[in-house]
Fold:
Amino acid sequence: MSQDIDAGRSADLVDQFTDDHTVITYDRRGLPRSALTGPAQGVALAQHADDVHRLLAELTDEPALMLGCSVGASIGFHLILRHPGQISMLIAHEPVTPRLLPAGQRAHHEAELREIHRRDGLSATFEVVAQVLGIDPANLDAEAGLVPQPMTPQRMRNFDFFVERDFTAILHDIVDVAALATA
Structure:
């Protein structure tokens, strides 16, 4: 199972596993192929984890391997804590989980992203995210043969949705960091 900003972003990775595995990708609530029917705020990460739990329960009774990138990794944390045994291994790549940071760094990052997005727009937000993740936009070292992922209008809407709605849910998220250590 792969989870990221939207399912289409993992196409190259999915192709590497389909010969040996059944691969499941999906769009979280509020993204293009999965409508958000509730209020305008973001969906709690625990609710996203319940969505994944129910999806997996419909598809298999075997423990799944999960790759969660960004918010997908944070959702994976909730899934392994709430539904032990449903995931045999979680690879959590760059989780958006400020509570894993030391208190001073956490407070800075929690306030910074949305403030910059609202004041300076999406381009400035990308610059901050790239800096936090250690990405040099002038020197992107991509693997040969990958499908380009240009910043389309849909991807821009997805990132706006992430910053304005999902990030609110992330800021209010409580994940038991001590329990993660033993999960």
